[in-house]
Amino acid sequence: MDIEVPVLEERPSLPVLGTAKRFSVRRAFCVGRNYAAHAREMGANPDEEPPFFFMKPAEAIFSVEADFTPPLPIPPGTSDYHFETELVVAMKSGGRDIPEAEALTHVFGYAVGLDMTRRDLQNAAKKKGHPWEFGKAADFSGPVGVITPHAPGVLSADAVIRLEVNGVERQRSTLNTMIWSIPQMIALLSRYFVIRPGDLIFSGTPEGVGAVAKGDALHAEVAGLTAIDLRVV
Ligand code: MN
Question: What is the pTM of this model?
């Protein structure tokens, strides 16, 4: 019998600073409520509830190439599509039960990303105790910029993470206000999943999240990394 079997497209991939080689994306883990002030603006109490994980499918990830401003489409089904500026950690190796002290040896590099969120659908899911995918896993909901390879000092502990919409600053914090540090989030994840090359970890967003509108210009940055720019369409 001549059966047509669909063939998967290539994996999404990200540019890497200093080389034409690409980083293939395997999975995207995301940390929820990793900045106390953002947990509070979401109505949660960070003193009582620790951060947690959820996922985006790899297919939601798309690359923001250097010196290029790609379109960021608003997906269907939402009238409250929110930006969340995040540090993205890219893994080159891993395994299970990684000790915190060894976690950074598995990091390939760091990039700036957005965890775009259909907030209205996420809030409806929260109320019902339903899963978050319709809020978090929309197509094109995970733009990520150029990866800067890990090296000592490439990311300072108090690096500023910030976002501007149409030139107006909307989010600003520093990485040292994350509740889970990068080694902690890797160690925790590895107790539940085998971390593999190509895995990404979106490390959570600081306070100031808000809705985008068609035509908005987004500029997100983490000090020391390549900033990203997108145009909402
Ligand atoms: Mn997020």
Answer: 0.97
Tokens 């501007």, residue? 164
User: What mean pLDDT is predicted for residues 124-131?
Assistant: 97
Distance 204 CA to ligand 1 centre (A): 5
Distances (CA, A) of 45 to 72, 123, 124, 154: 32, 16, 19, 32
Angstrom distance (rounded) from CA 55 to CA 108: 20
Ligand 1: centre distance to CA 66 (Å): 23
For residue 209, report the distance from its CA to the centre of ligand 1, in Å: 10
Give 3 Cα–ligand 1 centroid separation in angstroms: 41
Residues in the chain: 233
**How far is ligand 1, taken at its centre, from the CA of residue 7, in Å?**
31
pLDDT digits (tens, 9 = 90+) for 47-67: 999 999 999 999 999 999 999
Domains in the chain and their CATH numbers? 13-232 (3.90.850.10)
Place of tokens 């690096």: 159
- Which parts of 62-217 fold into alpha helices (H)? 100-103, 119-128, 133-136, 182-189
Q: Using one digit for the tens of pLDDT, what is the confidence trace for 179-215? A: 999 999 999 999 999 999 999 999 999 999 999 999 9
- Confidence check: pLDDT of 9 > 90: no
From the CA of 202, how far away is ligand 1's center (Å)? 7
CA of 29 to the centre of ligand 1 (A): 10
CA of 81 to the centre of ligand 1 (A): 13
